[in-house]
Amino acid sequence: MPRKPAPFDAAALTGAVASLHADEPLGRGETAALVRAVCAELARLHPGGSIELRVPPFAAVQLAIDDAGRHRRGTPPNVVECAPDVLLRLAAGTLVWTDAAARHLVRASGVRSDLSAVFPLVKCE
């Protein structure tokens, strides 16, 4: 049975990203919970199946950011993959999608794999 993610908590995300910026590592459990919550929030805000966002080893979720519809079988033709800390920084707004892509922190394939419209979920100062 799949694990139900914790509800999205903007304050927890903000605190975790502040720790990352202070070079304080997050625990595996905390990282997993935050990544799953961010992915669940993205799926709630952008339901669909035209893009698969993968954050190994913690989560994978299918999204849509336009009217591309739902891919019905197998892996969607648009795939984005990133490390957990990259997803958290994108979600918190301390890393911009275009910078992450330019620095090869995200691997994106497919014509609809640009996720710049979904980030940030919150804005850290």
* Series of secondary-structure elements, N-terminal to C-terminal: HHEEEHHE
The N- to C-terminal Cα distance equals: 38 Å
Helix content: 25-40%
Task: Give the total of domains.
Answer: 1
Q: Would you identify the regions where 5 or more consecutive residues have pLDDT less than 50?
A: none
What is the average of the pLDDT values? Answer: 89
Radius of gyration: 14 Å
Shape-level CATH architecture: 2-Layer Sandwich
| CATH class descriptor | Alpha Beta
Instruction: Could you tell me the CATH topology label.
Output: Nonspecific Lipid-transfer Protein, Chain A
Using DSSP, what is the number of strands? 4
Shape: globular
Tally of individual helices: 4
Strand order of the largest sheet: 2-1-3-4
The major beta sheet can be summarized as: 4 strands, mixed
Give the percentage of residues in beta strands: 15-25%
Give the helix/strand class: alpha+beta
Describe the protein's architecture and organization:
The protein has 125 residues and is α+β, with helices and mostly antiparallel strands. It has one domain: Nonspecific Lipid-transfer Protein, Chain A, CATH 3.30.1050. The protein has helices spanning 10-21, 28-45, 84-92, 97-102, and strands at 51-55, 59-63, 78-82, 106-109. Helix 1 (10-21) crosses helix 3 and helix 2 (28-45) crosses helix 3. It is globular, with a radius of gyration of 14 Å. The mean pLDDT is 89.
